Amino acid sequence: MDDSLPFADRTDAGARLGTLFAERDVEADLVLAIPRGGLPVGRAVADSLSVPLDVIVARKIGAPENAELAIGSVGADGSVWRNEDLIARLAVSDQYIEKAATREERAAREKRDRYRGEREPLDLTERVVLLVDDGIATGATTVACIRQARAAGAKRVLVAVPVAPPEAVSDLRAEADDVIAVARPANFGAVGQFYRSFEQVSDEEAITYLDS
Q1: pTM of the entire structure?
Q2: Each residue's pLDDT tens digit, 73-88
Q3: CA 126, CA 43: separation in Å to the nearest integer?
Q4: Is the per-residue pLDDT at 1 higher than 90?
Q5: Would strands 156-163 and 128-132 be described as parallel, antiparallel, or unpaired?
Q6: In a 3-state reduction of DSSP, which class is residue 159?
Q7: Which of 4, 6, 16, 136 is deepest in the core (most CB within 10 A)?
């Protein structure tokens, strides 16, 4: 395992990202965290950069016979990413994708609104935006978040995570302006294996990080 691993918890991982940003002179105007697990990380990152924190939400579009297999993703604003190779290989119909995308967009929008409550969304126009999560496995939902930030007018979109497999980092660089990871272990199985404490974060707990 990489010498930088494991992380104690998500807050520790966010602090380690903040240290990495300082070493690389990374600057951003705001942080957008992907709930739920991305919020503890995002809070630590936003505090280290002294910038505002908000949420950005996307949902994966699961395959017909395997809901855990992402054939695409959709953002709360309707931004859609399709894994065309996988869709063709599984012979998934456009009708299925459209129906699933509509359902998942609604769920993403409801989650975003629940997290924001009465807060106004941050203005992304001409801003350098940092998308943060607690880790990336495939990157499917991250792509929809990147496209969502661009559609909202972001000047540059950076993705920052504590841990991600090398292939996911490479794939996401086709969408983001840069992808920053504290660790990129080749022996990647799941995000949680790189944390000593990786308790599930409830919606109620996650929302408190926006109030900090």
Answers
A1: 0.92
A2: 999 999 899 999 999 9
A3: 22
A4: no
A5: parallel
A6: strand
A7: 136
